[in-house]
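If you are new to this repository, start here. Below is one unmodified record pulled from the training split, so you can see the exact layout before writing a loader.
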Amino acid sequence: MSTSTSSVLYQERLTPSTGLWVGVLGAGVASFLVGAPINIMAGIIAGVIVAVLLGFILYSSSPTITITDDILRVGRAAIEREHVGVAEGFRGEASRVISGPELDGRAFMCFRGWIEPKVRIQITDKADPTPYWIASTRHPERIVEILNENIGDSELERYQQEMQREHEQRMLLTHEARSQAQES
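And here is the target side for that same chain:
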């Protein structure tokens, strides 16, 4: 992929939740408590090193979602916007369903357990076997707004019907496979 020089329309780093940062501090305190009986200074150094190292690893390994006029980038994956179709945002139970029972195994996935909302982005490149990308995001509505700004209602409805048909077909195939397995 070539580097885009267009302006950034949206950018989000999928950083850990507050609870995970508290866990990092807890690991630092635990390291202090292990080293403190040997030497207070050793305990302090161990605690600081563990907390800083874990914090650095968590932050630096957090993927980003970046949307420009030309490119969509989710984590290490990138695609030209001309190959991006309909985007849909999900929260709550719908988020769990589309990232679980309704998930197509060919999809590109970028999930983070501490971020519940998801966005599903259709890939229209005929040479790409990936039907869609699905990613955790704290702001699915904003991503949908940006990516769907040039998509008409009829195209959106057609895509949603297509996704429903594919889901029903997968469920039918799964049911038939289970029936055949029970018969044998």
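Two things worth knowing about this chain: The longest strand covers residues 84-90. The helical segments are 18-35, 40-60, 92-98, 140-147, 153-183.
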